[in-house]
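Severity: low
Component: inverse-folding endpoint
Summary: output formatting inconsistent between runs
Steps to reproduce: submit the following structure tokens with default settings.
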């Protein structure tokens, strides 16, 4: 099918400046679309449909036996009332009630089955059907890490690496209790420190056990427990980030740094304006950033956020940035360049901005993407995850890319202006990788009616669209079920997982799905 016949624009016009086309929300000023018919675009699907849960009653004809499906268990047949009446003068007969039947888990297709319907030029797929025994609740899948030829992720009490080329399990590390926190990216030499609970049960558990893992070898290194003094450093909720060989951990209203190599505590992250500003979260990568909430009180219009850049090795403060009163920092989209979101203290995700800083933490530009219809973190809201987890966002050297349930676009970090944008009436679009000239690779998620794929877009929007990867139709329903929860892109291959999986065997879900070029 063709994309809707509406014009899309570039901010670098080949013609003299023109007036923007009325009614087109994506038109940067000063460009008229090239003449001729609209370009061909890929197909877009509808958004996710909520699951419907039902209780089903089946009456077996002629037998008077009633079966009930209640949630996830089958009850056995119930005999008529006359047969259920017992008599003390009779010898009890063996029960006619068969054993309770448990429904079979939903079947997950194999990689061969997903590839069986490939058309010429379609991507090849592999799938991971993880049979880890999980508790009967929704279990979170944590950050995806790609190291070498592996993709690694923590689920419940295990960290597992799968080979990027075919999905085969390479190694796994088992932990005594569930993982509760992971950093968004490993160290440059492929190490992470995961945080897991001090006990199996969630009730009363603390998120206080640190475990270093070398992702290149699958070997577990040092382990230690976070210290709690009872003075604003509890570990009910913990945030972590890696910068070089330094692990920063925020626990309640305090934070500290540790050496990744051996777990040595290096320094306490300073609490500035004691009693007024408290470390709230940490962001890592090529820089170490610490967010603090300040002037916390009943009147939220007076509160503000402070962002500090620290030398990871020493803890020295390199610069500070402070929001204006009534606004707080939401998510850090990039540490180099420094780009983050801000939220109004009371209007929250209904009133947000993208802020870019320059050298020394000086304000570079502020962008209001709401005018083009972009929703906060691709319409997932303030998810409550770590400060570096924001769906549908990507930052390049001079561009921030925003995706969402029906659009994707790029803003120049220097001018704050829209460089290009593409809107779709029925597709979720996720920027994957920044490319030269403000272009980007974009994941076009699967819908109920068509498979997903990867496209390349740049200045000129739909006029520049290039199909990079077509996912096979035979994988559509499985891909759609993932709902693009967690994404990774490496070596021309996309890896997709859900945000969480159910521990209910009847609702068993695939753990991981991947598409890449080449013959199976």
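Observed output (run 2 of 3):
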């Amino acid at each position: 099918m063709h994309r809707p016949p509406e014009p899309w624009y570039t901010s670098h016009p080949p013609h003299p400046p023109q007036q923007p086309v009325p009614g087109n929300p994506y038109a940067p000023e000063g460009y008229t679309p090239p003449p001729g018919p609209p370009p061909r675009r890929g197909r877009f699907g509808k958004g996710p449909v909520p699951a419907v849960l039902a209780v089903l009653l089946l009456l077996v004809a002629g037998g008077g036996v009633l079966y009930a499906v209640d949630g996830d268990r089958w009850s056995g047949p119930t005999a008529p009332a006359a047969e259920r009446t017992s008599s003390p003068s009779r010898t009890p007969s063996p029960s006619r009630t068969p054993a309770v039947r448990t429904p079979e888990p939903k079947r997950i297709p194999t990689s061969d089955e997903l590839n069986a319907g490939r058309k010429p030029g379609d991507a090849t797929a592999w799938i991971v059907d993880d049979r880890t025994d999980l508790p009967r609740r929704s279990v979170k899948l944590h950050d995806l890490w790609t190291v070498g030829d592996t993709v690694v992720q923590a689920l419940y009490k295990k960290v597992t690496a799968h080979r990027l080329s075919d999905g085969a399990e390479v190694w796994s590390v088992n932990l005594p209790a569930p993982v509760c926190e992971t950093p968004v990216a490993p160290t440059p030499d492929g190490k992470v420190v995961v945080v897991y609970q001090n006990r199996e049960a969630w009730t009363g558990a603390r998120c206080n056990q640190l475990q270093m893992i070398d992702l290149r070898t699958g070997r577990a290194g040092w382990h230690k427990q976070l210290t709690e003094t009872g003075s604003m450093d509890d570990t009910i909720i913990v945030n972590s980030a890696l910068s070089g060989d330094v692990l920063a951990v925020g626990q309640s209203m305090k934070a500290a740094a540790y050496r990744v190599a051996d777990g040595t505590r290096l320094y306490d992250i300073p609490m500035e304006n004691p009693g007024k500003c408290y470390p709230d979260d940490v962001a890592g990568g090529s820089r170490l950033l610490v967010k603090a909430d300040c002037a916390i009180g009943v009147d939220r219009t007076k509160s503000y956020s402070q962002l500090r850049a620290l030398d990871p090795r020493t803890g020295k403060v390199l610069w500070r940035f402070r929001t204006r009163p009534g606004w707080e920092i939401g998510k850090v989209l990039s540490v180099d360049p420094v780009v983050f979101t801000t939220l109004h203290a009371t209007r929250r995700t209904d009133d947000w901005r993208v802020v870019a800083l320059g050298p020394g933490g000086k304000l570079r530009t502020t962008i209001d993407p709401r005018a083009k219809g972009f929703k906060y973190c691709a319409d997932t809201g303030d998810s409550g995850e770590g400060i570096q987890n924001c769906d549908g966002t990507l930052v390049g050297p001079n561009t921030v890319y925003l995706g969402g349930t029906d659009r994707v676009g790029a803003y120049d970090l220097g001018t704050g202006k829209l460089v290009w944008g593409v809107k779709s009436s029925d597709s979720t679009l996720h920027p994957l990788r920044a490319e030269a000239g403000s272009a980007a690779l974009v994941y076009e998620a699967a819908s109920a009616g068509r498979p997903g794929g990867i496209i390349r877009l740049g200045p000129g929007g739909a006029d520049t669209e290039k199909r990079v990867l077509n996912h096979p139709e035979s994988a559509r329903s499985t891909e759609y079920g993932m709902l693009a929860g967690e994404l990774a892109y490496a070596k021309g291959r996309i890896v997709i997982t859900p945000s969480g999986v159910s521990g209910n065997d009847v609702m068993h879900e695939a753990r991981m799905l991947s598409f890449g070029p080449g013959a199976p």
